[in-house]
Amino acid sequence: MVAIATNRPGTGTRSAIEKRVDPYSTVVLKDRRGYPHIENMNRNVIFDLDGVLLDSETNLDWLDRAMKRALEEMDVLITRKNIERLYPGDLQYFETAVKDFPFSPDKVWEIRDKHYVAEKLEMIDRGELRPFSDVSSLDRLRPLYSLGVISNSPGEVVDRFVKAYDLEDLFETWVGRDSDLESLGEIKPDPHLFHRLKKETGDGKFWYVGDREVDRMFAENTGMEFLHLTRNGEGFGSFDELVDYLLELTE
Question: What pTM was computed for the model?
C-alpha cells in the first residue's frame, strides 16, 4: 500500500561550511569534517517502522497472542517452537519453517497473517503500540527533507500507524508489504519496496534509517545511505541526534 501526502520540502538557510561545488552537480562534495553536504536536490529520509518509529518490540506479548490464535485455528499444538515457526527470524524462510504443519504454506500464511494484522491493528488503535517519544523531533526536518516509511510490516499496518497517530503531515509516502505469501520474496533486503516508493518520490538523494542488519543490506541494495538508529549507543542514540546530523548536512 502506498499513500501520498502533499507537503513538499522547501529550502534551507546556508551557513559558513567549507565546501567545493561541482558546477554540474547539486551535491556539495564535503564539509570541513569530510561529511557529504547536499543542497538544491530532492532529499528523502526513509524510515523503518518497527523498532525505529513504532515501539512494537519492547513487549512482544501481542505477537505471542496472535501466533497462539493462529495455532489454535489450525489445531496445532501451542508450543514456543511452533510460535517461532510462524515468526522465523527471516520471513523469507517461512515456507521451510512451516513445512510440517497440516496445511499448505499458503494456507498457514493466510491464517498466520490474519491474526498478526488483526492483533497489531488493535494494539495501535488502543494506543498500546505507540510511536517512540522522540518521533516528534522529525518535524525539524520537514522544511528540508521529504520523509517516508518503508516497512516489512503489512501495508495496512503502516497506513494505520501513520493515520492513527496523526503523522500524515510528517510523512509524504509510506509503503508496506502485500498480504500474500509470494510478497515475502519482495520484502527487505530486496529492493522492490524501494522501487514502489520511488515511483512517487522521483529521483534524488535517499537515506534509510533502520535498526537491523537487514536494513543496512536494504540500503546497500537500493543505493541509499544507511543511518543506524539503535538507541543503545551503537548507532544514533535518538532521533534528536539523527536530526542534528541531517540538518548539519544542509548548512
Answer: 0.82
Helix (H) or strand (E) holding 200, with range, is: helix 192-201
- 220 and 168 part of one domain: yes
8 Å CB contact between 205 and 216: no
CA distance 31 to 249: 8
Q: Is 197 helix (H, G, I), strand (E, B) or coil?
A: helix
Residues of the chain with pLDDT under 70: 1-41
CATH of the domain at 163: 3.40.50.1000
In a domain, 130, yes or no: no
Answer yes or no: do 43 and 90 share one domain. no
Residues 154 and 37 in one domain: yes
Nearest to 153 by CA among 45, 69, 51: 51
Our CA dihedral for 123, 125, 127, 128, rounded to 10 degrees, sits at 0
pLDDT at residue 39 in the model: 53
The amino acid that residue 207 corresponds to is: W
Q: Which domain holds residue 191?
A: 2-55+137-248
192 domain-assigned: yes
Bridge-partner residues for 54, per DSSP? Answer: 50, 131
Three cell numbers, residue 80: 514456543
